Predict the structure.
Amino acid sequence: MSLKKEPSGRRSIQVEVEVPGTPEEVWPAVATGPGISSWFVPAEFEERDGKPVAVKMNFGPGMESSSAVTAWDPPRMFAAQGEGWGGSPPIATEWSVEARAGGVCLVRVVHSLFASTDDWDNQLESTGLGWPGFFRTLRIYLTHFRGQRSAIMQFVAPVAGTEAEAWEMLTAALGVKGLSVGQRWAAPAGVPALSGVAEYVSHGPYDALLRLEQPGPGVGALGAFNVGGQSMVALTVYHYGDQAAGTVARETPLWQAWFQERFPMPSEAIQSE
């Protein structure tokens, strides 16, 4: 992944992932509100005369975005354009699905803008860095939970110290410190019910993915990161199946209380179905 600069002033970043399924099977996961909400962030498409005209995404409190749909060609691609970051030029995003041999597809996301200076290059590159983790969740979703109903609960809390120290705090508290891929795991006493199998673990960047069995089928994503010099810890849980919304409604207050007790600085919670 690298920033591409063109003579026209267009600057773009491209990220992609190979996932199981045909374009017709993969398209609902990347081009519908319920599908995108199943592995990325809560999303909703606004339609007019049966055709999508805008897509809204909720990245957290005060971080909602709305983009106008500028191209729509199912099940191959759609494009949208929205406001940039704090005065940057408008950001265009293209989502595409390309069939590959062996019953798999390539999902590609391209972010681009037009600028005559390098002022926004770092932000564009940073946007690309966040995709690999979400793509891993997409792959798990399409492999194990494709087409199922989903509901999300997300928790974020600022903590003192470095990213490494924040990761140490989170993994120790959840009992996942030292966890290896393929290893079964259950949260220790004092933590709301959470158990399953490790699908991905990284200690730089600091994140992990757990395919969950309790309190219901789903994916748990853990992370530690830095925003403006402030270390943060995060837990996002995607629940799947007919009971997903009920599970999120029941579990959210438990996790909110746990985060507030374990990380006493103000924390935020989001839930969506």
